[in-house]
Design goal:
Blueprint (H helix, E strand, L loop, with lengths): L21 H7 L7 H4 L5 E3 L6 E3 H6 L15 H8 L6 E3 L17 H12 L5 E8 L2 E8 L10 H17 L3 E7 L8 H19 L4 E9 L1 H4 L8 E4 L10 H8 L10 H6 L5 E2 L2 H15 L23
Parallel strand pairs: 5-6, 6-7, 7-8, 8-9
Antiparallel strand pairs: 1-2, 3-4, 4-5
Helix pairs in contact: 6-7
């Protein structure tokens, strides 16, 4: 007998209809619910760290990740940097297999080995720098690009080794060298071994200089610590992005040490240009054209007699490569 026709003494029980539950209704019309996941994708808008303006992420990407309101330069990935600077399909990565070991078996809150594994998983890279060969407006060059997402772009033994091998390749192929720095400095998880990379990389740049090959050093936000104190400031031409933090120790540490208030804009690219520590500030949209102009200058035939062999001071770089 149907439930609606149940006679006296029979209990009537109507099974709940699953489609009428609030959960099911929410699933059917999820775009009506007030959850971020169902209405606004988390990566649709990006907030500028400087002016705090909300910017449509697609527009920001088209502008090379430069804020259209205040011209703040966001940090960008190695892949985006390659697309920005190099000719299409010219990138050939070198020594991607090199990765750090853990010779000191360092352990803080977590082990160094575990931190490296997390960084590899996060970035899909084995180290904090990608090195390779490419062309820029037809000019062949050796390129190194730091990845700040990999443990703050810190320089350990593997990073130092990759830079030295890149210099060796530049010398072998007679190509200029470009390194784009974005680093917090030496990787202290490796102790003195990381500090040794400062000497190791500086000696490599000296060999490049003796070979009369130009080194273009591009500093982005941030470039600090042992990277600044070594190869990054040894470029024949040192460029920087607007507003980049460039220094050795942080401003707060310096203020606490000297017990004085630092001038406004201290350790920013504009301050360093004014004091003569860097050669030029180049906006991201002009970077490729500026580098091409420099490469064109260095590749022009030399009209002077050859100099005695010795390290270059920047203005003495041979233009034959």
């Amino acid at each position: 007998m149907p439930p609606c026709c149940a006679g006296p003494g029979h209990s009537v029980r109507i099974a709940p209809t699953e489609d009428l539950t609030p959960k099911c209704q929410a699933e059917k019309v999820g775009w009506f619910t007030k959850t971020k996941e169902s209405i606004v994708p988390s990566n649709l808008w990006t907030k500028c760290q400087k002016c705090e303006e909300a910017i449509y992420s697609k527009d920001l990407a088209k502008a090379a990740w430069v804020c259209p309101k205040c011209s703040h330069h966001f940090r960008i990935s190695v892949h985006d940097r390659i697309e920005l600077l190099l000719d299409e399909r010219s990138w050939q990565e070198l020594n991607a297999h090199i990765k750090t070991a853990d010779p000191l078996k360092f352990h803080a809150l977590t082990s160094y080995d575990e931190r490296v594994k997390k960084a590899v998983q996060k970035t899909s890279a084995n180290e904090a720098i990608s090195t390779g060969l490419g062309t820029l407006e037809g000019f062949p060059l050796a390129v190194g690009i730091f990845n700040f997402d990999f443990m703050g772009g810190s320089m350990g033994s593997a990073v130092g080794e990759k830079i030295v091998r890149l210099v060796d390749e530049a010398i072998r192929l007679r190509r200029p060298l470009l390194i784009v720095s974005c680093s917090g400095g030496a990787r202290m998880d490796e102790g003195v071994l990381s500090l040794m990379q400062m000497v190791k990389t500086s000696q490599a740049i000296a060999r490049l200089s003796r070979e009369r090959l130009p080194f273009l050093s591009m500093l982005t936000d941030p470039t600090t610590g042992g990277v600044t104190a070594s190869f990054a400031m040894l470029g024949d031409v040192i460029l920087a992005e607007p507003g980049a933090l460039i220094g050795f120790a942080g401003p707060r540490v310096i203020e606490q040490t000297i017990k004085e208030t630092l001038p406004e804009g201290f350790q920013r690219a504009e301050f360093l240009l004014e004091t003569g520590l860097i050669d030029m500030i180049v906006s991201r949209k002009d970077c490729r054209a500026t580098l091409a102009k420099l490469l064109r200058f260095f590749s022009a035939p030399a009209h002077h007699a050859p100099h005695a062999e010795g390290p270059s001071n920047g203005s003495d770089v041979s233009t034959a490569f």
